[in-house]
Amino acid sequence: MRDIKLSGREAAVVRAIGFAESMLGAEILDSTRMEPEDVGDTLNGLIAAGFIETIPYAEQVDLAEMPTTAFEVNPAYVHELRVAISRR
């Protein structure tokens, strides 16, 4: 098992997405109350690390596309991410 350490912004975004269903970028923005640029950077970092995925698949999300893109937690990391969030 990999020991995942999330920053505060990363943890907020993963909490907002949740572990059950996908969530649109606009909903993540509303839930986290972060600046759109910060959410976009955080999402792209989590995508690059493989912790979250986009629907439809993309390796990176532009700020203009983010509100209409769906995001979900990568099922391979659900347990590790739950542990990382619970430690915060």
Summarize the entry for a quick read.
The chain is mainly alpha-helical and 88 residues long. It has helices spanning 8-17, 25-32, 36-49, 78-86; strands spanning 23-24, 52-55, 70-73.
The CATH topology comes to Arc Repressor Mutant, subunit A
Elements, N to C (H/E): HEHHEEH
Sheet with most strands: 3 strands, antiparallel
User: How many distinct beta strands?
Assistant: 3
Strand order of the largest sheet: 1-3-2
How many helices in DSSP terms? Answer: 4
What percent strand? 5-15%
**C-alpha end-to-end distance:** 18 Å
User: What is the CATH homologous superfamily assignment?
Assistant: Winged helix-like DNA-binding domain superfamily/Winged helix DNA-binding domain
> Globular, elongated, flat, extended or rod-shaped: what is the shape?
globular
- Counting helices, strands and paired strands, the structural category is mainly alpha
Number of separate domains = 1
- How large is the radius of gyration? 12 Å
Poorly predicted runs of 5 or more residues = none
Instruction: State the oligomer.
Output: single chain
Compute the average pLDDT.
95
The CATH architecture term is Orthogonal Bundle
What proportion of the residues is helical, as a percent range?
A: 40-55%
CATH top level is: Mainly Alpha
